[in-house]
Structures are given as C-alpha cells and as structure tokens.
Amino acid sequence: MSGFTPPSLLSSPTLLFCLPFSLWPQKLHRWPQFRSQPAAGILERLNAGEIVIGDGGFVFALEKRGYVKAGPWTPEAAVTHPEAVRQLHREFLRAGANVMQAFTFYASDDKLENRGQALKITGAQVNEAACDLAREVANEGDGLVAGGVSQTPSYLSCKSEMEVKAIFKKQLDVFVKKNVDFLIAEYFEHVEEAEWAVQVLKTSGKPVAASLCIGPEGDMHGVSPAECAVRLVKAGAQIVGVNCHFDPLTCVKTVKMMKEGVEKAGLKAHYMVQPLAYHTPDCNCQGFIDLPEFPFALEPRILTRWDMHQYAREAYNAGILYIGGCCGYEPYHIRAVSEELAPERGFLPAASEKHGMWGAGLEMHTKPWVRARSRREYWENIRPASGRPKCPSLSTPESWGVTKGHSDLLQHKEATSTQEMKHVLEKQKKVKSSA
C-alpha cells in the first residue's frame, strides 16, 4: 500500500483521511520550505484556482498571552513585544497559512489615541514594525504579506470623507514604503467607509481585498451583502468577503450572498472568508460584540478543530478560495483548515508532523478507551459538552440599536468620563429590562 496510491485517494478527501498519516501519498508529506524565488502574487494564485489560507486572530490571541489590551484592541505589541508577534506569525505559517497579515488592525492614529489611550508610539511606527515582522516570517516559507486598514473612530464620529481617507492614506504610505504584497480593507461595519478605504488603497496599484464584518442581514445601515459586494467591486476591490463578528457557517452563507450579487451584476471578483472561531447562532446583525459574554467569557463557544474541517469544506465548495480566520482562531484551527484542504492544495502543513489525522495519534495512547477514539467517525459526530450544568445554550444579545451618527458612538481623545459611564450603565439596565 505504501508503494502505490490509487488516483482516487488524491481526489477524495473522505478516502484520504481514512488512511493513517504514514500511508498518505508522499506528495502530501511535503510543504513549502524557505523561499528561493519570489512567491506568486495573491491574484496570480487565485486566478490559477489555488486555495489561499489566511492566518488567524491576532488581537484575541495576543490579549490572552498578555500583549494586547482588551478594550482598545490596538497593535502596539508590534513595537513593544515583537517577539510575541513574530512567534504567532510563525505558528500560523507552520499551520499552513499562506498570508502573513501585518499586525496593523486598529493601527490608525485616531484609534491609537482614542478614549484616554496615551501611547508614546505613532501609527507609523506600529505599521512599519508590523510589516517588517510579517515579511520576516513570510520569507521563511511561501508566504505573502498583507497590509490592512480597518474602520476608524473618525468615521463613527461623522468626520468627513476627506478626513477619514487621510487616515487610511497615512497607513497606506507605510505599506507602500514596506512593499507589502497586497492590501486588505477589513473589519468594516459600514460599506460606505469600506468603499472609501478601497478607493484609497487602489491608488497604490497593488491588489486590494475588502472584507466587511457583517452577516446575512447586511451592514449596520441595512445594505444587503449582495449590494455591499457590488459596491466594493465597483470601488476597485478584486477580492471581497467578510471577517469577524459571526461564526464560520454564517460567514460562508454571507459570502455566498455576496457572490450571487456580484455575478448578477455581471461583475467578477474573488472571494474571501475569515470568520470567528466562536459559535454565534444567537447573534443579531451586530454580531458577537452584542453577546453578554463578549469579550471575556466566550470560551464555551469555541469551535473544535473538527468544526474547522466542516467550515473549510463548506467554504471551498461555495467557491471561496481565500479561507482563513479572525478572532478566536489559534494556529491549530488553521492547521485543521489546511488539513481538510490538503488534497486540493497538494501538501500538508509542517504542523501536521505532530498531529495524527482525525485523531490517529491516539492509537499510541496508554488507555484503550482513548485509543478507541482514534478515528474520523468518532470526532465528526462528537457533541461536546460545556461542563456547565446551569448555563444556557444560547444568550440574549444586548441590542442597543446604535450605529454611525448616534451620539453614543461619538469618539474622543479624552478618557471615558464618570458621567459617560453613568449614562451607559443606565442604558444597559434599560435595555436588559426591556429584553
């Protein structure tokens, strides 16, 4: 058997994953090593039908490790603790990610100095350091570097289009200086702001992806996923999709709606999805930030590695080629995505050296009842218990119903005042009493 691989095994994930790792085709034991020549660009890969695996969620992962502060969620760790950022990049690369997304989420100057945060680090310093770290690790494999911009406090505070675009331009200047491979406008709740970001990023001449943090109900002003996608493509994005705020299958559903809209409009684009690693069936249009567990009690909702196999297959079957993760995604989640799509990609990630497919490594366990779990059928059908007998399976989102233009979302440099806190606590009490 080890000397012969039936052709069907190369095209059938089901048959392939039934085999022990040692009997996998030798071509799937290999993974890209240190880059010896320039990597193909993002559009060249997608145009050729290649699957591109994104990385995972840096702000949540680094917050848990003690390098990011919950609340502002800003990425100054790229300057203050580069070793932590570098290590996480390496773990995602080893797990199979093709894209090292520079840790520039919320790295705009207006966000770095919002609500009392007084960092002695500029946005330019953070963006430059983040790009350098991403490039260093990308060059250790077959990785691409993406520079990203995200929604701004200035937009929520109703600043002008010119003012908001100027913020994006400052980040873009760094990305051009550092010669990133492509650009991402990600984590936008309002398609209008995302359009402005795309228009700015397009001036660089580099490929542009645009990713909204929306679900099937559309953006926070009720613009449908289909219309959002059409507007982003017309603005100049070559890759469109969603990230964050919702669980994988909800995000895949949303991108399918985007794809249908683009095709109906007679336009062309590639598609991306980078969802949460949390189950969110009880979310409203605002997503997981409305859940009472956000952000410090989400762990019971975490997806297993086996859930990730299902997600990866659903995304690929929907015609999505750029498949990654956002908040909650750890390297083992990305490894699961890479393993599920190994037959299509032609190789396993390096991290699979220490992971038996579908629990095959459990055959080496000392306890026989654990050895009995070393099979795909067991893990595909597991229904994990939370171990919390008094906890509900679903929550009631805190639906405040405010978005851009509402006084509650006006941002400022000063720390949140006692009076402001009194106001939000009173409103929270009112919302809960009416739920």
The portion of residues forming beta strands comes to: 5-15%
- Highest CATH level, the class: Alpha Beta
User: How many structurally independent domains?
Assistant: 1
Question: pLDDT under 50 segments (min length 5)?
Answer: 1-15, 18-23
Fraction of residues in helices? 40-55%
Q: Mean of residue pLDDT? A: 89
Termini separation:
61 Å
User: The CATH topology is what?
Assistant: TIM Barrel
Tell me the major beta sheet: 8 strands, parallel
Considering the chains and any ligands shown, give keywords for the structure:
8% strand, 19 helices, TIM Barrel, alpha/beta, betaine-homocysteine S-methyltransferase activity, 435 residues, 8 strands
Description:
With 435 residues, the protein is α/β, with parallel strands linked by helices. The protein has a single domain, classed as TIM Barrel, CATH 3.20.20. Helices cover 40% and strands 8% of the residues. It has an 8-stranded parallel sheet. α6 (82-94) runs parallel beside α15 (331-340), α11 (191-202) runs parallel beside α12 and α12 crosses α13. The termini are far apart.
Write the layout of secondary structure elements.
Elements (H helix, E strand, L loop, with lengths): L6 H5 L1 H5 L24 H6 L4 E2 L4 H7 L12 H4 L1 H13 L4 E3 L7 H4 L10 H16 L5 E6 L3 H4 L4 H17 L4 E7 L2 H12 L5 E5 L12 H11 L3 E5 L4 H17 L5 E5 L30 H13 L4 E2 L7 H10 L1 H4 L22 H4 L4 H5 L37 H17 L1
Parallel strand pairs: 1-8, 2-3, 3-4, 4-5, 5-6, 6-7, 7-8
Helix pairs in contact: 6-8, 6-15, 8-10, 10-11, 11-12, 12-13, 14-15
Protein name: Betaine--homocysteine S-methyltransferase 1-like
GO molecular function, one term: zinc ion binding
Organism: Poecilia reticulata (Guppy)
